[in-house]
Amino acid sequence: MDIIGLIPSFGGVLYTIAAFVIALLIIVAVHEYGHYIVGRWTGIHAEVFSLGFGPVLWSRVDRRGTRWQLAALPFGGFVKFLGDSDAASGKDADAIANMDPDTRRHTMHSAPLWARASTVAAGPIFNFIMSIAIFAAVIGVRGTASDPLTIAALHPVPLAQGLQAGDEILAIGGSKTPELENLGSYVADELSDDMAQTYTVRRDGRELDVPGIHPYPAIVQAVSPGSAAIDAGLEAGDFIQSVNGEIVETFAALREIVGNSEGNALTLGIWRDGQDVQVVLLPRRMDLPLAEGGFETRWLIGITGGMAFVPETESPGVLGSLGYGVEQTYFIVKSSLSGLYYMATGAISSCNMRGPIGIAQTSGEVASQGLTSFIWFIAVLSTAVGLLNLFPVPVLDGGHLVFHAYEAVAGRPPSDRALRVLMAIGLTLILSLMVFALSNDLTCP
């Protein structure tokens, strides 16, 4: 066996696992801290806050009597409150029965209903808050393109062009440049698909006509994790010049070729850092969520396009950034619920659900694209974890909230026997879902 030859692959596996563990621990820490801090605010005492399960590697007890610990298996975490029999918040009836009324008030099982419900709901809510904060911070730092459209920098391309940084674009192809929100539809509906375009720009106070390339050429802005493109080694900044020997003028033309490929192999002629490169890949049939709801199925290679230049940006402000964060989080929640519905009805492939192996692989691929991409992925995954925990399944936070809702209506909690049966059913459902997702990781393309 060629041990030396296995080292790069082994290193890639370690990188993937490390990225997955880091992402998971951050998300779990935020989720469990939500339970902990709201429990503390509402008078419920936390005995243990653990990141990970199994043998304890490190621990300390704070002045409130809570043990903070790191455990050997970094695939989750828990908060054990006073009166819990285990990490799953089972009830230690004997211990609670021997407590005085004041101490009993500080247990999860004897605190007022509002305190228990708030503590349970806080975990998923903190996941959503983290997602909103990350999305808002990224867009706040990155900014949004500002009107009027002005060039901040030019992407390296294999064609000569007369545009310069600082040029304010007044017209493209003889037509006045519209506001940015209408630029995409203008390019699609009115601008010719020719690579060569004439720009009217304002430069140093003068209006000039200069040659340039189509504002949306077949340039790779980002590569999607788990895609044909990332498997084939495409990189951000690649300039796609041809497909199967046919010249490609625009990203829209590339999208049409890929969409009509029926999954057949495509040979891409790429210009990268001054070198001509050829890449062969197989488009994959994918189900894509639509902004208005529902899904569409298309052949994709897994890249997003961008403009031929970097536009100047402006900060959307705190409120604008937060609004964007809320919209992005809501879109992920809506798309996830819609996807589950369409998978259940057979409208889209069940392979859209991935398990730990698929998520770990995506973690590593996103981390390799840079810190910003990795942080963005953590926000997406945090939203998914928050949503999953709200499902009304015993064992999950959503199941506990259903129990609390029953108690609010009936005036009493479910019996201990009923809770044990329901928790066993819930655990079976969760394990079945995990096995199904894991089988997708192993069998789906």
Q: What does this protein structure show overall?
A:
Strands 6-5-7-8 form a four-stranded antiparallel β-sheet, with no helix packed on it. It has four domains: 1-22 and 112-143 and 315-445, no CATH class; 43-110, no CATH class; 146-213, Roll (Pdz3 Domain), CATH 2.30.42; 220-311, PDZ domain (Pdz3 Domain, Roll), CATH 2.30.42.10. The protein has helices at 3-41, 93-97, 101-104, 113-142, 180-189, 228-232, 251-259, 317-344, 356-367, 371-389, 397-410, 416-443, and strands at 46-61, 67-81, 144-145, 151-154, 168-172, 175-176, 196-203, 206-213, 220-223, 239-243, 246-247, 266-272, 275-281, 284-289, 295-300, 303-305, 309-311, 313-314. The chain is 46% helix and 24% strand. It is built from twelve helices and 18 strands. The chain is of the alpha+beta class and 445 residues long. Helix 1 packs across helix 9. Strand 1 and strand 2 (67-81) form a beta hairpin.
Overall shape: it is elongated
Total number of domains: 4
**Helical fraction:** 40-55%
Give the SSE string. Answer: HEEHHHEEEEHEEEHEEHEEEEEEEHHHHH
In whole angstroms, the N-to-C terminal distance is 28 Å
H/I helix tally: 12
Q: How would a crystallographer describe the biggest sheet?
A: 4 strands, antiparallel
Strand content: 15-25%
Low-confidence stretches at least 5 residues in length (pLDDT < 50)? 1-11
Strand order of the main beta sheet, please? 6-5-7-8
Kindly state the number of beta strands: 18
Radius of gyration: 27 Å
Mean pLDDT: 89
Q: Pairing-aware structural class of the strands and helices?
A: alpha+beta
Assembly state here?
Answer: single chain
